[in-house]
Amino acid sequence: MARLVVLMRGINIGPRNRISxxxxxxALEQAGYDDVRTYLQSGNVVxxxxxxxxxxxxxxxxxxxxxxxxxxxxxxxTRAELxxxxxxxxxxRVAKDPRRYQVSFLDAKPAPRIxxxxxxxxxxxxxxxxxxxxxxxxxPAGVARSKLWARLAGKDLGVTATARNWTTVTKLLELADAD
Length: 179
What we know:
By secondary structure, the chain is α+β, with helices and mostly antiparallel strands. The protein folds into two domains: about 1-80, Alpha-Beta Plaits (2-Layer Sandwich), CATH 3.30.70.1280; about 85-175, Alpha-Beta Plaits, CATH 3.30.70. The protein has six helices and eight strands, in the order E-H-E-E-H-E-H-E-H-E-E-H-E-H. The strands form two sheets. It has a four-stranded antiparallel beta sheet with strand order 2-3-1-4, sandwiched between helices. Strand 2 (about 35-40) and strand 3 form a beta hairpin. About 30% of the residues are buried.
């Protein structure tokens, strides 16, 4: 049994894709997952399972479709994988505001062409670094008007992706470590 972090794309942002976190926890527990915890209202779940992260992500997509009638993309990481994301922290020297420092979690490595396009769209002091199935992005002027952020948040990366700010990333690791 391993601790997994399950990240759902676009949950409870605005009026669409609304899911109650207590109902989500209950649905996941009924599906056989243990130690189910949620963080915030935006589709961040920590749970225990004997299944591989990719299988858990696919199963969660089906569960959400069946139980809540929503088509939601899901990406999952093991606790160890998330710890490596935090340890790696390639923009640590420049990313001083955790709300403007984002990590996009992808279900597969993006094509090199996509990475070049992301680097090209970064403006001013923005920085973007891809490592494996994660893309770290620093938006010093904020994410609201960032073309880089708009590109990362879009659905044309060629892979399933969902992003979290650095505060959420580190909090999810703490939750994964909690007993």
